[in-house]
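This week, work through this protein record:
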Amino acid sequence: MPVVIVNGEDPAMLVDTVTPENRFGARLGIEHLLALGHRRILHLTWKGRTTIQRRYDGFSDAYFAAQLPVPDDMIVEAEGYEPRHGEAAINALLDRDATMKGATAVFCAADNLALGCLKALADHDIRVPEAISVLGFDDIVPGEFSRPPLSTISVPTDRLGAAALALIEQRLIANDPQRPAHRLELGCHLVLRVASRRRARMQRIEPDRCVAFGEHDDQNPCCNPIDLIVHHDRCFDSHCVRR
């Protein structure tokens, strides 16, 4: 009896598989965020199946294609894929670093993680998308009703079953024991909602509006009056937070 793996991969390529184009979908999402001016994009993921690794690959591909260095320091791993895991990972990051490593956008490897991310950001009074954009992956129904509605990569889940049956039919008709395994990937597309937007413009911050973690006086200001990216009422100078 022919067998098809749905929404998964066979690394040995012995069995037919059908899956969303996870790598392409992730690249599509990151290219969108890069086009909006984001560079410091946090990737919230978890150690899941190979399909999740493909989404990291797409994250990297987009930076390579744009001739930008891949920000490996921006990878944050949650303990799992449920919303509570995403929430816990973002809360832990915010406890360590209120600027979230200077992120202006978060790309979540699954909408479930993104929903938890949105809750953690809201609990810290970080406005989405005014202060930071959030992009998910999967296009699950709760994302349409989150606050704000989640931008995401839509996966053609309603087409996976029919595609798997087509592969089974083809193998039965071929009746060829030597027929190589086929891997069918279905395209994904971007769904834009409220949670993502163009990165905030550069804003000028004067030295007297910052507080250094160390010594601070008029002769030795903690930062120069230069253009600094503002994120959640903080500048990205490593020594300063805004008053």
